[in-house]
């Protein structure tokens, strides 16, 4: 089953870094996932996230306010 991954962030450098870490983790491990970037502040507010970037996997907020390592992203995707 394909996972739905969202990176919440307004496009700041940290948000871009998180997006590339997640992209790399997905492609290097052939993970079946859809990656969406959510940059609309109203959309981000729906998740009650005050610090970006935030990582949402299948509608669950897993990380907020920091850039995860590739290994950390992999662990979250496997669980």
UniProtKB/TrEMBL annotation:
The superkingdom of the source organism is: Bacteria
Has UniProt tagged this entry with the keyword DNA repair? Answer: no
**A Pfam family hit:** Thioredoxin_3
Where are the catalytic residues? 12, 15
Which cysteines are cross-linked by disulfides? Answer: 12-15
Please list the residue ranges annotated as the Thioredoxin-like fold domain.
5-78
The protein's UniProt keywords, in alphabetical order, are: Disulfide bond, Redox-active center
Which PANTHER family does this entry report, sorted A to Z? Answer: THIOREDOXIN (PTHR36450:SF1)
Q: Which NCBIfam families match?
A: redox_disulf_2
- Name of the protein described by the UniProt record: Thioredoxin family protein
């Amino acid at each position: 089953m394909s996972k739905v991954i969202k990176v919440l962030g307004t496009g700041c450098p940290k948000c871009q870094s998180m997006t590339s870490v997640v992209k790399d983790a997905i492609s290097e491990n052939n993970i079946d996932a859809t990656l969406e970037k959510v940059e609309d502040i109203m959309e981000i507010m729906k998740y009650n996230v005050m610090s970006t970037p935030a990582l949402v996997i299948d509608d669950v907020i897993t990380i907020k306010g920091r850039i995860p390592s590739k290994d950390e992203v992999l662990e979250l995707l496997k669980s």
